[in-house]
Structures are given as C-alpha cells and as structure tokens.
C-alpha cells in the first residue's frame, strides 16, 4: 500500500481546488508522494502539464513529468468563484470513485479537496451534512471521528458543529467512550503508535474545579476515563483546557480529546494554521483533507496557499504506510 498513489478528489471546481492540485504536483513531483487527480481535466488552470490516465497503475510513469488526471466530464466549464450546480454529480462521483479505488487496493488512500455543500444539494440533492458523513456512509461506518493534525498538535472534538448551548446535552458517556476508542485505535493503525497517550479536556473551566463550575467533568467524563484506563488505555484527565496546549504540556500526549469544536480547533489553528490537516478516523480507508474551505474570494487569482494540501497528501501517504505495517 505504501507504494500506491493517493487519490486526490477535485472538490468544488469553482473554488481553489484546481489551483491547489497543480501547485501540489509542482511541489511534490520530484520527491512525492505520488498522487493523481480525479475530476474534469478541463477545469485545471493549465499552468502545469497534465496527462489523462485510465488507471492508477499509470501514475508512477507519468508523475515526474505531468499531473496525472483520472478524467471525468463534468458537463460545463469552470468559473472561478461561481459554483455551478451542474458540476454536483461529477463532484460526488469523484468522491465515490476515490473511495472505490482505495477500498479495492488501487490507491493508498484519498485526499479530498473542499466541496461546496449548497451546490451539491442544489445540483444533486446531496443529503449529507458534509464530506465526513458522506464518507462514513460510503465506508458503511456509523461513527467516525474528526481529527485535526499538524506537526505540532493533534486534536479531536467530541462534539462538532453544534451550538455551544447544545454541547452538554449532546455530550454523552457513550459518545465520549466511542470517540476515545476510535482515536486510540486510529493512532495505532494510522500513525503507528503502539501505546497512544491521550489527554482529555474537561468541559468546564478548570475541569469543573470539584463541581463548583459544573459537575459534568466529575459525573460524566471522569467515570468514562476510569473505565477505559482500567482496560489499559493511557489517558489523563479531565484536564483544564487552558493549560493543555503550551509547548511543555503538548510533549506529554499524542492527541488531545476536546469536548467541543472551538476547544479543539482554536489551539491548533493558533499554533499551526497553514499546516493543519483534517483526518477522518474510523474509516476502512485512509482519508485526509486540507483544513480550509473553497475560498471563492481568491479562486482563479493564484493566491491559494498550498501548505495544508501538501501536508494532507504527505500525511495520507504516511497513514497508508502505517496501515500496511499494522
């Protein structure tokens, strides 16, 4: 698996995806990892050479000299900054094709460029909240975990895109336990860590301070951690979140489990904004994605920063190699 290429899905054609695909090839053409784009070759800006392929086995010979493209006709040209619902079926088919190639052993994994959910809904009735849920459906998995990873920090939010006022109700012992287990197994399988160390944030300031600032940390989080620790997982917490992310603290764990979206994402974006990668744990295939959106405001202007895409491709290759070793 480590020698197989990564499938890079095109994402929303009107966004910065086509530019990022070309820039990524320029940066990686000499030392890899090798990848191929799945999408409409006509949507590429044309700043680098590309060559259409019929099969991922062609990538190794082509990659040093041109961007390999597994072409799909999307039926309409690209207009930077102006999403076209006509492209929706093509975008969805590209994701489905990448998953098939990864699951059939023809790609080491997939890296997904950003999609635009409204365009997918308008053009193809896309019924999923986002990429992650769609990939879980394709992988026949009920619960997957979103990790944000960079060379400086890995974080996992237990609850994600919900209002802060809804977090205490959504945060259940079963959800917390499943998230910790999936993260633990993901770090072993996809990151090659034999005994992952997890730091678990409290929900409330000062992790509740003995119940003075809320009892969720004592009554909900602590019992789950005690149960899993008795099973042999290396867990610490619940910890005050405001002391978890300085340099010395980060040396003591491999990933931080946080109770809600901003508790996890603010630290990693403050520490390493450009190199953050979105990783989906718990899937039967490797999936990474750059941690940004379609950026319609700069699409077509040559301003897109490729750092997160480059990190996402590199991490997908490393995760594929770790799965092979595991």
From TrEMBL:
Organism listed in the record: Halocynthiibacter styelae
Gene3D superfamilies assigned: Isopropylmalate Dehydrogenase
Entry similarity comment: Belongs to the PdxA family.
Localization of this protein: Cytoplasm
GO MF annotations in UniProt: 4-hydroxythreonine-4-phosphate dehydrogenase activity; cobalt ion binding; magnesium ion binding; NAD binding; zinc ion binding
Sequence positions that bind substrate: 131-132, 269, 278, 287
PANTHER family reported in the protein's UniProt record: 4-HYDROXYTHREONINE-4-PHOSPHATE DEHYDROGENASE, D-THREONATE 4-PHOSPHATE DEHYDROGENASE
Protein name, UniProt field: 4-hydroxythreonine-4-phosphate dehydrogenase
């Amino acid at each position: 698996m480590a020698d197989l290429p990564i499938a890079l899905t095109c994402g929303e054609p009107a966004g910065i995806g086509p530019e990022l695909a070309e820039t990524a090839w320029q940066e990686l053409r000499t030392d890899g990892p090798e990848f191929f784009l799945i999408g409409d070759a006509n949507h590429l800006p044309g700043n680098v050479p590309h060559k259409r392929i019929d099969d991922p086995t062609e990538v190794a010979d082509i990659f040093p000299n041109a961007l390999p493209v597994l072409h799909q006709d999307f039926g309409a040209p690209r207009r930077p900054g102006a999403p076209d619902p006509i492209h929706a079926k093509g975008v969805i088919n590209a994701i489905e094709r990448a998953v098939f190639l990864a699951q059939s052993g023809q790609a080491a994994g997939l890296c997904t460029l950003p999609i635009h959910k409204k365009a997918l809904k308008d053009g193809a009735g896309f019924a999923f909240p986002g990429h992650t849920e769609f990939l879980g459906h394709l992988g026949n998995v009920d619960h997957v975990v979103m990790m944000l990873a960079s060379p400086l920090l890995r974080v996992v939010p237990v609850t994600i895109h919900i209002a802060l006022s809804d977090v205490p109700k959504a945060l259940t012992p079963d959800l917390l336990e499943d998230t910790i287990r999936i993260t633990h197994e993901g770090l072993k399988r996809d990151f090659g860590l034999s005994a992952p160390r997890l730091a678990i944030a409290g929900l409330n300031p000062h992790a509740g301070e003995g119940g003075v600032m809320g009892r969720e940390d004592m009554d909900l989080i602590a019992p789950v951690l005690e149960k899993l620790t008795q099973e042999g997982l290396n867990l610490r917490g619940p910890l005050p979140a405001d002391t978890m992310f300085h340099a010395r603290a980060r040396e003591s764990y491999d990933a931080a489990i946080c109770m809600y979206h901003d508790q996890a994402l603010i630290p990693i974006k403050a520490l390493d904004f450009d190199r953050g990668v979105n990783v989906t744990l718990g899937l039967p295939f490797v999936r990474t994605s750059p941690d940004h959106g379609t950026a319609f405001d700069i699409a077509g202007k040559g301003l897109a920063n490729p750092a997160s895409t480059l990190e996402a491709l590199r991490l997908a290759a490393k995760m594929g190699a770790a799965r092979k070793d595991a």
